[in-house]
């Protein structure tokens, strides 16, 4: 985020002038003429700085502009610290943002995809770095993207410490961009969450999503834009807004809520529900010999999921593979802690439901079973 690629070849060898009619000495070939604007990149960095500054934690030792970000790990706070790292992107949801020329929320999606993977292990996100590849640096557009990234970091309690903006003329169209990020967190070794803690009798709580989050957009675009030929600017009564506005609703960032829940209850595992759906991701934290048995009747998917299924005649099993279906994070914990957990999530304004329980199973049984039918889906 803080730096811009300027000379990828950088061999250190001085170029030799060519004196002929095709390439006269001093003919004026420039980096800008190749499609890369250093001035625009510098302007973008200046516009980014106030947003990054708002996310600054006391452990950050330097501002933007250096070759590396410096973060002093507060080791005195931990007995046996373990670093956790995660990286991700936003996929083809960025295509919707580009089509609508709306860029100030896609950064929230980027942060959510990364930090909510981190927190699934019990780790507190410390800092995040982004990578923005674009066809042309438009300073105001880059700044809007970074404003969203900074807002996501604020929601997650981590610092945006820098990154990279790379201009790729000739490879990407001028208005195109792609986003990725990497974050680092820390967790006590004896507090790492996961399948080793899950026990028979545990209960699975589902935290509701804000919508599609950032998965399944290749199917979304194929069904709604290619097959149904709907317009992003068109109003959809079921949503109470335009189709484009619904598709750009940013991910819910669960990091702080998950950390609070882990402090106040005996959380055994989290599953961040992304590509692969509820069953596919929850299965990653269910150990051998156990099955999480969930009831679809316990929650109602948001209208956008039925809208996609209806327009594309998408089978339920395909919907459940591609989308979160309304549950963005799952929490596994003892039955005795359920009431307290629900109270914590309610206080944090995270709508949640009890999805089911974990039980013993045979060696050939699936790790996750979904039963029943969603109401009104």
UniProtKB/TrEMBL annotation:
Reactions listed under catalytic activity: 2-formamido-N(1)-(5-O-phospho-beta-D-ribosyl)acetamidine + ATP = 5-amino-1-(5-phospho-beta-D-ribosyl)imidazole + ADP + phosphate + H(+)
GO BP field: 'de novo' IMP biosynthetic process; adenine biosynthetic process
Compositional bias segments (type: Polar residues): 1-12
Every PurM-like N-terminal domain range: 81-187
Domain PurM-like C-terminal: 199-362
Homology family: Belongs to the AIR synthase family.
Protein's recorded name: Phosphoribosylformylglycinamidine cyclo-ligase
Lineage: Bacteria, Bacillati, Actinomycetota, Actinomycetes, Nakamurellales
Chain's gene name: purM
